[in-house]
Structures are given as structure tokens and as C-alpha cells.
Amino acid sequence: MRAPTRPALRAAVPAAPAGPAVAVSLVVAGTGMGAVLLTSVGLLPLFGQPELTAAGWRQVAADLGPGVVESLRLALASTALAVVMGLLLALVLLDAAVLAPRRAALLRSALVAVLLVPHLVGASAMGLLLEDRGVAARTLGSGLGTGLGIGPGDWPALVAGDVPTAVVLTFAWKESAFIALVVVAALAPGHSARRDAARSLGAGTVAWWRWGVAPAALPSALAGGLVAMVFTLGNYEVAWLLGRAAPEPLPVLSVRLFRSLDLLDRPAAAAAVLTTAGLALTAVALTLLLLPRLVGPLLGDLHTSPAPRGRR
Amino acid sequence: MNRSPRALPGRRALLDRPAPPNRPAPPGPVGVLGALGVVWLVLPLIPLLLWGATDRWSLRAPLPQDWGTDGWEQALRDGALAAAGRSLLLGAAVAAIAVPLGLAAGRVLAWGLTGSPRRLLTILLAPLLLPPVGIAMGLDVVILRIGVPAPVAVTAVLVLFALPYTTAVAATGYTRVTPQWHDQARALGASPRQAHRWVVRPAMRRSLLLATGLAFLVGWSDYAVTLLLGGGRTLTLPILLGASAAGTGNENTTAALALMTVLLPATGLTLTLAIRRLAATLSLRHAGAT
Questions:
Q1: How far is CA A37 from the centre of its chain?
Q2: Which of A81, A266, A250, A264 is nearest to A180 (CA)?
Q3: Which of B39, B114, B264 is best to mutate for the A interface (most A CBs within 10 A)?
Q4: Do B163 and A21 touch (CB under 8 A)?
Q5: Which distant-in-sequence residues (6+ apart) come within 8 Å of B171 by Cβ?
Q6: What is the ipTM of this complex?
Q7: pTM
Q8: Which end of chain A is more exposed for a tag (fewer CB within 10 A), N or C?
């Protein structure tokens, strides 16, 4: 029997072009996470014989609880601030596009610029701004000629302090731009007409935002916030650079153990990173269970595609 | 005065009343909040600009005493140019693989070529839920055992994390460029390949550019995956920046490396947009002349 030709295969399986992307996702993610799982229970040691054991989990057990708390503290605080700031930026941008297009263009450019800044650059910049030798401390510490300068040693520990100010501000700064653009993309079509209708009904700016825009913007803002929170839970470099030494958030704990000179720490590192993944998946599952309306903004409306199934 | 909808007058009164002028209107809170928004977005970047142009800045001075390029010179001595070249290669490799894969998957999603689009989308978006350091740690053991070079493994992991972006951008583009475009070209006598080349591909150019830019940035700006899988031997620009930012007393070098990390892709983006605008202007002139 002749093997089917490539066009014939394409006609028979219209979704075949997505195959390579699916294969990459499943193979790379599956191999990576599978290997981590096996490493955590001793079945994929770097050297020596595989042996099913919970030694890695036991080794890191005492650090997992504080790590989970620290990770959640950073993620929840920064996501909450990012959603508020992102929502405000989106509301302003949507209305500015109608009222003051030049200002809107400036704001949009600033949002895109922040989105394009890597997290590591953002963390470095926030460190240079907020640390005790940073630009804020130098500028405000000098008093700017008013004689009200902050004395040496009086600058609050915004970087690596007990209150994770710099970490939270870095994530909130970066993710607020992302959330604002998500909300703008969701609400921009027809925004001007809806605004005109609200104004003709007598709504002022605040009433329009409160009753006209915020309810429509909230699902996409929260969906963007969920994506941001999951990203924050798994991010390493920001908390490593700006966070306190102990307790460590889970990604920092896992990378420290992974890069330890003692190779026997690898199973403990794998256990910590599996806990990170479990935390992120639980956060998503719980949020979608409590707020099922977020599924639409997260997955889009691609199921209502314009073409009938089976084309090409 | 702002009023809630509950306090609005009756429908007849509203219909009889002339609509208030909508444009131009004073920006009011929009203007003030917009200015604050720009401050929120721009303020954290100011230290990079200040430190990037500083040679000496004593602790109690509000502004630098000596301006200069010491930080940039030190960054170049640390190997920033070679590191930028490696980052460029990594970004290009990630884009070269992730964009075609994302375009194909995006077309399947947007044109309804699969019976279970949500399942497909969930598979392609799932990597966003996983910690990049986790996948890198797992693959590290595997590549050591089967002898895969570290740069290949780094690229594979970064392609995985670029795919959700390229797929989403392509799906959005293909939602706009429906299959009917292709069908109409076929009806006019084009072969499937010609229809794709002359009709679909030009209409998808903007999405293609955006997807390429995003995938490139995933590779260009990665830190954690390169650090773990590269074992510190793959010196990209973010790896140099991370090492510098973790130290003290080298603020101007850190700022120079951070600015390089941001400015090189920004310059590329600006050049691409300028070339596109120039090409569009030239093609309009050409169309006018003929």
C-alpha cells in the first residue's frame, strides 16, 4: 500500500500543522518536569544508582513552608498592586485616546517600553533607585538644599529588607504595563462610542469609569493579574537580586540548592522547584474555580473561529 | 458633578436634552492621572540614565560630580560586545524556530482547523504555568546523560517559552486574515502556494514582525535558563548584567550593561519600523507615478 503523500496527509488531518509546536511543548516541558520529578525521588541521580527515596524532600522540608509563604507574599502583594496600577493606566489610556491623542501616544509608548524591559534590567534599575546607596537615597538624603536630608543609616531597607518593597515594586511596575495593555486590547473596540453614549446620559469621568469601564475591564485585568502572579511565583532573578537572604522564595531556594557544590543537594532543589510548580498550578486552578469568567479572557474566543472546521 | 446611573434623569428628559459636547473636552482627571502614569512607568529607568553617564558620584551629593563613560568602558572590557553577540545569536535562533511553529499553530487555532482548540491552546500555553528554572534543572540532568550541547538545550527551553507568544500573535493575525482571502485568490487562478505567498503572507506581515520581535526578546533577555543550563560558561549580556548587579561599587557598569540590554533591541525595533515606513512611502510614490 502506498504511503499517503504530504498534501494528502494535510487534507486528512487539518490540524497537522500545529503538530511540531505541540511536540516541542510536550517533549521539552514533559522531559524537563519529568526529569525533575524523578530527580526529587532519587530515580535520576547525577551519579550512582537510582534508588526510590524521599531524602531530597526530607532535606528541604523545613525550608518549604517559609518558602511557600514568602513566594505567596511577594506574588500576592505585587499582583494586587499591578492590577490596580494596570487598571488605572488602562482607563487613562482608553480615555486619553479620545481626549488627548498625543498624550495617549506618549503613555502607550511608555507602556510598551516597560513591557520590553527584561525583568533583570527592571530589578537592576529598581536596585539602583531604592538601595541605601541608590539614587533616591542620594537625592532625598541630600535634602535638596532644604536642610531636611535623611541622615546616613536612616534610609529604610527598601532592598533586601523585611518588607520586600523593591521586589514588589519591580514586579508591580513590569506587570502593570502588561495588564494595562491586556485591558486596553479587550476594551478598545467600541470604547469611543460607549464613552459618547455614557456622556450623553450625563455621566462624568469618575461615574463613567466606575459604572461604564471598570466592570467590563475587571475580567481581563484579573486574567492578566493571574498570568502575572504565576510568572512572579516562578521568577528567580528579581527576588534573588532584591530580596532578603532568608526566608528565600521557592525559586531562589531551588536555584541555590541546584548550584550548590554538593551534588547531593540536587534532589532537594528538584523538590523545591516541584513545589513551585504545584503552587502555581494550584493558584490557577483555585482562581479559575472561584472566577470561571476568567477562562474566556485567558483562552480567548478562538473556538468561535470564522472558518468552518476542516478547512484546508 | 459626577452622577451614578441610578441618579440619571428619565429617558424623555435625556432624549430632549442636547447631548453635551464630547470633543474637545478638558482632560481633567485623565490628564493628571496620565501624567502620574508616565511618572510611574519612567521613574525606575532614571537611575540607569544617570548612572550610565556617571564617572564619580559621592554618597551625599544629589547629582554626579563627574560625568563620563567609565561604566561603558568597563562593560566593554568585561566582554559586553561578545556577550551581546551571543545574546543576538540566541535570540535569533529562538525566533527562527518559534515563529514558524507558532504561525502554523496560530493558523490551526484561528481558522478552526482543530476540533478541540481549547485543548490545543492549553497545551501551548501550559509552559507559562511552569517555572523556567524547573524545566532547566530537569533538562540539565538529561543533556548531561545524552550529551546534548548546552546552547542547544538553552535554545530548546527558550523556544518552549516563546511558543505561547508567537502562537497567540499568529492566531490573532489569522483571525483577521480569514481563509476566504486564500479562497478568493484560488478562485482567481492562484495556486495554493501563490495564494499564500501573494495574499496571506503580506497580510500577516505585521503579526509576523510582532511574533519575531517577541520570540527574539525571550531569547535575548533570558537569565535563569542560560545560567542553569549554560553552567556559567554561556556568557550572554544578561549573565554579565546579573553578575554586575549582584556586586557593589560598580553602579555605572551595571547601568551601562542594563542600557545595552535595553537599547540594542530598541534600536533594532526602531530601524525595522523606519524601514517599513520608508518602504510604504516608496511603494505609495511608485503607485502614484504609475
A1: 24
A2: A81
A3: B114
A4: yes
A5: A300, A302, B105, B106, B107, B109, B110
A6: 0.86
A7: 0.86
A8: N
